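chain below, 285 aa
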Amino acid sequence: MLSAAHDILSHKRTSGNQSHVDPGPTPIPHNSSSRFDCNSVSTAPPGSRQWDLCCWKLRPGCLFSFCGDQPVCYFLLLTSPEAQDPGGEEEAESAARQPLIRTEAPESKPGSSSSLSLRERWTVFKGLLWYIVPLVVVYFAEYFINQGLFELLFFWNTSLSHAQQYRWYQMLYQAGVFASRSSLRCCRIRFTWALALLQCLNLVFLLADVWFGFLPSIYLVFLIILYEGLLGGAAYVNTFHNIALETSDEHREFAMAATCISDTLGISLSGLLALPLHDFLCQLS
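prediction:
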């Protein structure tokens, strides 16, 4: 979905059946008054249909998934199980079912994650901010680049089409993420704030290039985007690794779960800002 975003937005739907895409779609004319080769909307989630798809299918990239769908499903759609009759047919069926491997249910230990008080959870969460804030910043910066700048980093002096350039950007970013998430045994980083700072510098540098167009070759952008993916993957894996090492046994489960909001929050905020940025830049002549 990420690598195909530019292609999806560049083509019209058929005028008849709105649920199918024409096998040979006609490209939408780009904004001829802009100095950028822009689609009519950004590759960040645009329009009501894209928001719906984002919320229900690609939830990690959507603000509503963080706030409109899980609580709604939990409180409004799910129903409480009805009380079962202790006797009769249902009890016989339940008794007939035997587990493949017999294991004793572990008893809830005092001080486990499920037994933490609200005050204890808040204390643990405050201690996690040293890790949560840098990870939010890293994801905000890299997805601001991916959703707001990738399409505008277009080079005319290359054999690659605009769509091909966009797909290469996404592939190189994901390759960098894959490599760095697999590098924990080779390199461990304690201060993830440094990764957040470097990712922000990437954002500023690429935004400046979109504005001034000073990079002479697309291959330099390829290297920067690969580096962007390396920073993002390293921030993710080292954040959770450090939390696993530095939290106590009774707090670790809650700490890991609480930190999971970081990437969703960063991606959601970057998407909200990437939409108006795209519109503003594409209106420049």
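Confidence is low (pLDDT under 50) at residues 12-17, 19-29, 46-51, 56-67. The two ends are 30 Å apart (CA to CA).
thats it, cya
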